[in-house]
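Handout for the seminar on molecular recognition.
Each group receives one record of this type.
Step one: identify the two inputs.
Step two: read the structure output and locate the region that could contact nickel (II) ion.
Step three: write two sentences on what you found, then compare them with the reference statements printed after the record.
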Amino acid sequence: MENKNSFYIFDSHAHYDDEAFDEDREKVIDEIINQGVIGVLNCGSSLEGTLKSAELANKYEMFYAAIGIHPEFADMVDENVVNKLKELSKNKKVRAIGEIGLDYYYEENPPREIQKKAFRIQMELAKELELPVVIHDRDAHKDTLDIIKEFPEVKGVVHCFSGSVEFARECIKQGYYIGFTGVVTFKNSKKIVEVAKDIPLDRILVETDCPYMAPSPFRGKRNQSDYIKHIINKIAEIKGISPEEVSRKTIENIKHLLKVK
Ligand code: NI
């Protein structure tokens, strides 16, 4: 592989279990390893995705799994599902509960009260298992922060962050990291650039959210973890520091959160 990155990458949020990778999953994973990706947190969305996340983490040394039910499927969260998550959490490669949270963007998502209930149940589970959380928040900043505050013992990341500088500061105050996707590289992005400028490097994580959210110049294409180099370069540019420093610190941050050596 040419164009090998001069720095390493840890993808703090990916979905390699997604059907978008069914055709060539192994090939893509080999490719990202060759391109300097040294870690991936694969996040479950459904119970099926969670099982596949754990399988990927068993198969690849550099993969870790987050297990949880996305707000899109909040109506499926019941005692039975929680017990399955508990059982799965015994796997040493399971390092987080996620992705969980609130998504008020899509009309067809379960009602808000059901989403909040599922979110609280899984925050409670994270507290009990002493695992960090990966939070999905879309158009639900206030309710997300309110529930985060109900669980002061729980720490984690607000992934694919889309809020304001003020909201980022509030999340950081609660001990959370802020997850940056390819959105920060888009020409028309202002808000997230402001956030990157404002918050300290020791609170920043980088992520693909692949197969979605590919950074510029791959916008609209299927995303993969080595593309994070464009996110790292952009954050370095915004902060006026070297990409190597952004790489080093974001790896340290995610390893600290997941308790990876
Ligand atoms: Ni995601």
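Reference statements: The pocket of nickel (II) ion is lined by residues 13, 15, 43, 99, 209 (CB under 6 Å). Residues 93 and 105 are 32 Å apart (CA to CA).
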